[in-house]
Every structure is written in structure tokens, then in C-alpha cells.
Design brief:
This protein has about 325 residues and is α/β, with parallel strands linked by helices. About 35% of the residues lie in helices and about 25% in strands.
Length: about 325
């Protein structure tokens, strides 16, 4: 078995590679070339903390395995990341375990890459201003991915922890360069009317985006909520949007951003216009008019992680990287 740490993974795959890989993964999902059982969510009693077990297989590229990912919002008070994960890869022919990879970095890469693909197909071509809710690991990955698909001129960041937001904005500024202005905003309400693209990467249980303040032509990527009772955007935002998802199956069971307005009758299932794979394959239209507000909900599926882990594993074997035990 080969064990690969975060620093190994960083050497072996780039965000640009992962973006291209996510287009392949979601195309495979839409073509029926993936097996993705529902994840098992193991909540910890009397907390918002949970551990998720996510199996998956890519039948054509022959990748199979499972990710165990913990989501512990309580870690914020400890000054450590909210998300930690490990990925187990198995041999497709024998079922034997062949690798264990640090999963948090892969989770951040594939999530950022996925919404960048959604932005590629749904955001206006002239979208230059990015508003980000959250200042954690996922927010960083989201920004890095979006810098690959759009020439951003302004990045606005909001987090309730103003010191964290300010430090994060400085870090992003050093990465984005002098052609892009990065700032930490003190009022969350300032982001939507100034943003062409909005990303929500929070652990909030209640909406952080008010739909009435979202300007026409905006694209929204929502990634933080993965529970049926939790949401990051309000009814007004959903009502005004053309809605797309990473997976019909999983979004309709896990995405509170959609489940809550579906139950209340704000939208119907027919208002969900398509999956990401259908956009990539050209089976469904995305943005139809410049003034459309588009909304992409990403809950995350195991085959994203398996696909990235397989590429990393093969490169590691070729280059002799990692610890063999």
C-alpha cells in the first residue's frame, strides 16, 4: 500500500489539471459511467459535527474507493480546519487496498475545480468581480480555481471573523497579483450587489445571501451546505435563478438550499434545469440571456475524490513518491 501525504499530492497535481478532470468526471456521471451510493453521515450527538463515509466507483476509468471526511464546525474555536479527510483507493480487479491519501487537500481541490467548471459554463464571459462568503480552506481553493477560468479584477471576502477575513484577503492579494484588487468587507450585504460571481463557502445554517440584493446577470456557486435543513441562500435568490446541480440524486436528498424551497412550494423539481455533466456534454443549455441569474448547488460526490486520487496515485507510482508500507 502506498501512503501519500498532502505535500506529495501538491507536487503531483495542479488546480488546472483538476478542473479538466472534473469536466471528465461529471460527463462520466451523466453518461452512467459512475456508481455513487448515498453517503453515510454519522452525526455526533448534540453537536453540528459529523463524519461522512463516501464510497464511489468510476466504471470506465476503473477507479474505486471511499473517502472518510469529518466536518467539525467546532474546530474553528480551536483554530484548526473544519474539514479533515482520508481517501482509500482499492484495486478494481482484486479489491485490495492499494493507497491511502490525505483527503483534505483533494477535497479542497476538487470542490474548487467543480465550481470553476460551473462558472465556466454558467457565468457571463465578462464576469470580473468575485464575492466570497467564508475565509477558510474551501474559500481559498474556490478563489484559486476561479483565477484559472476568469480574469478577475476584484475579489471581495466576507467572514464574521473580521481579523481572519483581513488576513485572508492579504494572502489572496499576494496570489492574485497587482491586476486584481482583494479586500475584506465588514458588511455581508455589500457583496451581492457588487459581485458578478458569488461563492458561499460557509458553515452557516441560515442564508448569508439575500436574493433581493443579487444583481441581474450574477452567477452563484453554493458549496457550504450539505444537510437538508441547512441553507446559505434565501428563497428570493432561488426563485430568481436558473438552477443547476452537481447530481440530481444527491442534491435532492442533501441540499437544504433546494429542499427547503421545494417543500414550501417556492420552486418545483422542474425548476432544476440540469446537472453539471449535462452542461459539459451540451445536453442542456446553461445561461440563456445576459441578465439571467444562475445558481449552481454542489453537495460533492465521492467519484470526484476517487478520480483525483487515481491520477495522483498513478503519478506517484511512476515517480516513486510516497511511503510504501
Amino acid at each position: 500500500m502506498r501512503v501519500l501525504a498532502k505535500q506529495d499530492i501538491e507536487k503531483l497535481i495542479s488546480m488546472r489539471e483538476v478542473i479538466a478532470l472534473m469536466e471528465e468526471v461529471f460527463s462520466a456521471l451523466t453518461r452512467g459511467e459512475a456508481v455513487v451510493p448515498e453517503r453515510i453521515v454519522l452525526p455526533l450527538e448534540k453537536t453540528d459535527n459529523a463524519i461522512l463515509f463516501m464510497p464511489g466507483a468510476l466504471t470506465k476509468s476503473r477507479g474505486i474507493g471511499m473517502k472518510a471526511v469529518s466536518v467539525f464546525p467546532s474546530n474553528a474555536a480551536r483554530g484548526i480546519p473544519t474539514i479533515s479527510a482520508q481517501i482509500l483507493l482499492c484495486d478494481y480487479e482484486t479489491g485490495e487496498a492499494k493507497a491511502v491519501l490525505e483527503g483534505s487537500h483533494i477535497t479542497a481541490l476538487r470542490t474548487g475545480a467543480t465550481t470553476a467548471v460551473a462558472t465556466k459554463y454558467l457565468a457571463r464571459k465578462d464576469a470580473r468581480n468575485l464575492g466570497v462568503f467564508g475565509a477558510g480552506v474551501q474559500a481559498r481553493s474556490q478563489i484559486m480555481a476561479h483565477l484559472e477560468v476568469r480574469s478577475l479584477k476584484r475579489i471581495m471576502i466576507y467572514d464574521p471573523n473580521t481579523q481572519k477575513a483581513a488576513a485572508f484577503a492579504q494572502e489572496v492579494q499576494s496570489i492574485a497579483g497587482s491586476d486584481c484588487e482583494c479586500s475584506a468587507e465588514k458588511d455581508a450585504r455589500e457583496l451581492p450587489p457588487a459581485s458578478d460571481i458569488i461563492i458561499t463557502a460557509t458553515t452557516s445554517h441560515t442564508p448569508v445571501v439575500e436574493g433581493c440584493s443579487v444583481k441581474e446577470g450574477t452567477h452563484i456557486n453554493a458549496i457550504g451546505s450539505y444537510k437538508a435543513h441547512v441553507r446559505e441562500v434565501d428563497d428570493a435568490a432561488i426563485r430568481r435563478s436558473r438552477i443547476f446541480v452537481d447530481s440530481y440524486q444527491h442534491a435532492l436528498k442533501e441540499a437544504g438550499d433546494l429542499i427547503i424551497p421545494l417543500k414550501s412550494g417556492i420552486i418545483s423539481k422542474s425548476d432544476i434545469r440540469g446537472e453539471l455533466g449535462e452542461l459539459v456534454l451540451g445536453r442542456k443549455p446553461g445561461r440563456e440571456w445576459p441578465d439571467d441569474i444562475t445558481f449552481f448547488k454542489c453537495v460533492g460526490i465521492a467519484v470526484q475524490d476517487i478520480a483525483v486520487a487515481e491520477v495522483v496515485y498513478r503519478k506517484a507510482c511512476d515517480q516513486g513518491i510516497g511511503l510504501v508500507v
